[in-house]
Design brief:
The protein is an alpha/beta fold and about 120 residues long. It has helices at about 10-25, 35-45, 60-70, 90-95, 110-120, and strands spanning about 5-10, 30, 50-55, 80-85, 100-105.
Length: about 120
């Protein structure tokens, strides 16, 4: 059975890159472009892990993660932030709402699958 990854990303180029890299490594990918849809989809059909863009239109990834962690149906799903934010305090901010990890953009395609596996094992 393949590991199911939900990618919450509104940028189509970024989505395609992550999808290509992870599918090539045996993951099953679901791409969702909005945080609102992701919160509902995760409750309806929980993935093994969620890769959450932080800067999304409407509800941002911080609020979406907060909601996921408050819902008993989704609270145990590991959420890993994917963001271009690399300012001091950003990692602490995403971890404070429940993200298990933090991946910086641009994504290192050679390390992405291993990084995802690391967060799956840690959860």
């Amino acid at each position: 059975m393949k590991t199911r990854v939900m990618l919450v990303e509104d940028n189509q180029m970024n989505s395609r890159l992550v999808e290509y890299v992870l599918e090539r490594d045996g993951f099953e990918i679901t791409i969702i472009a909005s945080a609102e849809e992701a919160v509902q989809a995760a409750a309806d059909d929980p993935p093994n892990i969620i890769l959450m863009d932080i800067q999304l239109p409407g509800m941002d990834g911080i609020e979406a993660t907060r909601r996921l962690k408050q819902n008993p149906l989704t609270a145990k799903i590991p959420v890993v932030a994917i963001t271009a934010h690399a300012m001091r305090g950003d990692e602490e901010r995403v971890r404070a709402v429940g993200c298990e990890g933090y991946i910086l953009k641009p994504i290192n395609t050679r390390e992405l699958a291993g990084t995802v596996r690391k967060f799956l094992v840690a959860s």
